[in-house]
Protein 1
Amino acid sequence: MDHLTETVHLNREVELLPSDEELADRVEANVPLTGPELSVLVAYAKIDLTQALVESGYANEPDLELSDVLADYFPAAATEKFGHHFDKHPLRSEIIATRAANRMINHSGISFVYEMQKKHGASVNDVARAFRAARLEIGVPDIEGNGDFEAWVEGAQALRALIDQKLS
């Protein structure tokens, strides 16, 4: 929470998140964060990761083929008619970074990128590249797409392990 307060101006009071003292009391009492509290943190973590990916230049990496991200983002009719213009879209980097951040956090959790950076000395860009490569390699389904929660959990666990291996 401290990191999100510094980077994306999370206001714990406004968002009704517990103070450090309240968190310490909860840890002592073995009381976890509530669903709404976790939802707020997920939203802010996605904002933070999106900003970091935009700043890192992830969407402009010359060896990454990311046109599929834009094609999946827009409706099929728009992709069919205007897909050849997507690489020039003024929000191209932001769309790609947002999609990448959402997928990384949805599949791997709000602390995953930080864990991988700390464990491997990797940049946010390195983690995103490893995530994309691993996701394409094992074909993890989006939970939003098919609702098969068990397949998603199994895929997310395999994905985390493969990313960890790719960064090692």
Protein 2
Amino acid sequence: MKITKLVILFNYQKIVLGLIVSVLLFVLSFWINSGSAVLLLRILSGLIILNIIASLAASYVLYDQSDLYELKNLKGVVDFKKIENAILVHASFDPLSKGLEEKYPNLNLTVCDIFGNRHEHEKGIETSKKVFPPNPKEIKIVPSQLPFEDQSQDVILAITALHEILDHEQRVLFFKEAKRVLKNDGLIIVSEQFRDVTNFIFFNIGAFHFLSQKQWKKAISSAGLSVISNQKITPFANMLLVK
């Protein structure tokens, strides 16, 4: 529940607003004489409550019950005990680097926070940093200029982070930079929610926060890279393996 609680903290204003609107619609239904209008208002009231519950349940499944931050589904794909250098990209929220460093003490992991992302100034970010303190070796990066030498990295991990690069051209530049710094047999691992039917059902307009699968493939292919594998982590998120 640790991350789900943070999701509630980040979205509490929207949740409270939804509850208020739902109550107002339900109360208003008692002041209207039209049977069809009463039914409509009560259905809308119920749907708002249902959507809040569904989105929180989906968040729990995605963030606290899935393999999203465990990376167990990379077994047989990446052996962190054997690789030398890796980059972890996040967007001011890092629940992963501490565990990776503890599990693989010989891994040279560089933790990168995307400079200027939308989460930097959110009210809940300070609380989230108390739960998951920033890595002391973390650096800020501009996605279009990665501060690494050519062909120096074995793996680039980007877990629910790259959708914060809002401009398509900037995403293309990031992938071009990733291609430059990766070794010939290097791998980019991108885990993201897609703007798809499932996420619209559970997260409603919140799904607009994400990119469609088509947008990801366009940015990746424009950088001269290819998606070699597209794995479902949960019904709400996919892991793309890119070379």
Protein 3
Amino acid sequence: MSLLTIIQNVCAEIDLDPPTAVMSSADPQIMQLRILSTRAGRDLMREHDWSTLMVQRQFATTGANPEPAEPPADWDRFAANSKIWNASRLWQLNGPVEPQTWQRNRIINSNPVPQIWRMAGGKLDIHPNAAGETMAYEYISGFWVANGEATYAANWANDTDTARFPEDLLELSLIWRWKRAKGLDYGEEIASFERSKEAAIGADRAAAPVDLSLPARGQAPENYWPGTITVSNS
């Protein structure tokens, strides 16, 4: 699907004439649907750490505080439970630290091991920050629109643009948003959207299988102790 087909499908659902173009349309109804679709896309991007939006980032430190180019322009947030690693020293940085901890370490010119980090002015701040070290972390990209095979953006630009997460969710979200904007009842539509969204999130979320069977040969349970307990008879 594409932006055009998304709007066409929604128009068919809400009994409007499907457009032949979206971005160049001067029809107030189509313009409203385009704006609502942008809001729907941004909300979906923020409601879940979609695997298609997850980026593995590595960079070489410059030694500056904060790092001038980190995080990159498409960064929206760190992935849930993600950590920042110093791949050069093979340790995980501590953070984000609160202002009091940061100031104390800076004022006394400490050298914490591992290093500490925080966000300052939207940039990644590391202390101490030695130049030339390799840092790694995972983040969620805010560029949820695909303009081509490898070109992404935060907003629609062309009728042929596609979303990087399930586009049927955009359609369902767009329908209830349009009904709400028109003052119509949208309870059933939003409920349908929420059910589909939870199903899509569940399918996208990685989870290890739960094995309730006994350990296989050669394996040991987590609480297994390899020692021997000797009980005295005396």
